[in-house]
Structures are given as C-alpha cells and as structure tokens.
Task: structure prediction
Amino acid sequence: MHAIIDAAWICHVAFRDERGVHCIPTACWRIGAHLYIHGSNGSRMVRRLMEDECCVTITHVDGLVLARSAFNHSMNYRSAVIYGRFEPVEEAAAGTGKRQAMEAFMEHLVPGRQGEIRPGNDKEYAATTVLRIALAEAACKVRSGPPEDDEEDMGVRAWAGVLPLREARGAVVPDPACAMAAPDYVRRWAD
Result:
C-alpha cells in the first residue's frame, strides 16, 4: 500500500453532504501510517471530511490487456482504497505538525525544492487546513500480467498481449522571468 500511495500525485476523496455525494480529486502524500491532503479553511470538502466518514482512492493504470475475446480484455493496475475520517493536523512542538507536513508534501512533489524556496508564512498557514487519515482501514487491489483467455478462445486469430502505459516526465519549461540556472533536481527531472 505504501508504494501505491507514494507513487501518487492525486487521490480522489468521496464524501457526502447536504448537497449529495461528491468525489473530489486532490493532491496527496504519505507520512508514516497516514495519508495527507490540504485545502483552504473555507473548503466545503475540508470541513465535511472532519465530520463524517469518507473513502479515498488512488489508481495507477499500468497497461491495457488485450485478449482474444472482448469479454476478457482488462487493465493492469495498482489501486488503494482508504476508509475512515480525516483529522486536522495542528502545529506540534515535536513530531509531524502542519508545517512539517507541508514541507514533506513539497519534498514528495520535487525532492530538494523545499530548501530553496520561501517557506510558508504564518498568514498562509493560518488559511490552510492540513488533514490526515489513518491507513488502518484500507485495501489494495493489483492486476498484472498477460490476458487470461478462455481455452475455447485460444484459436481466435487476434493479437493478444499488453499495451504498457507509464507516466513520463517532459522537458522542463523555465519561467521567462527566471534568469538563474536550473538546480540539479530540475535538470534530473526528465531522467
């Protein structure tokens, strides 16, 4: 489960409120045995997640599996589903407080970046809620490998196999107003 979460940029959070059922994509990261998200203090989703149970999903599609029959086509994937209630992360004298959690988020996105940028200030942290949900009630589902054709379909003259999919990093695009050379972690981005 940790590997599935650690490879994710986005999770989908499903919750219910007086307006109905919602599923919202949001950035996520993991510290220890918790999944973290953040949002504006005024966010309807953020407020609701602290009041009731929710479901969080992460899915990575690794390939399209082409079988000899339409029914047996599939996908190779890795997925995690987390159930529970989010809790707010407050400032802490020791351990993982709100500021440490947000710094871990930056390091999850781009390792090495946190040490070069202006850290969040008191006003920014006051306007942001950081939430975490325990990974105690969760399930993973993974599918990998070739097609699983029925014996009677093995004679069908159709190509069968896997069309792999992967995330690819593109070429870096510097801000036109940035005159400084790219640091190592930026130059290594597309490696």
In short: The first helix runs from residue 2 to 6. The two ends are 25 Å apart (CA to CA). Strands lie at 10-17, 20-27, 29-31, 34-40, 54-66, 74-84, 87-88, 128-134, 138-143, 161-164.
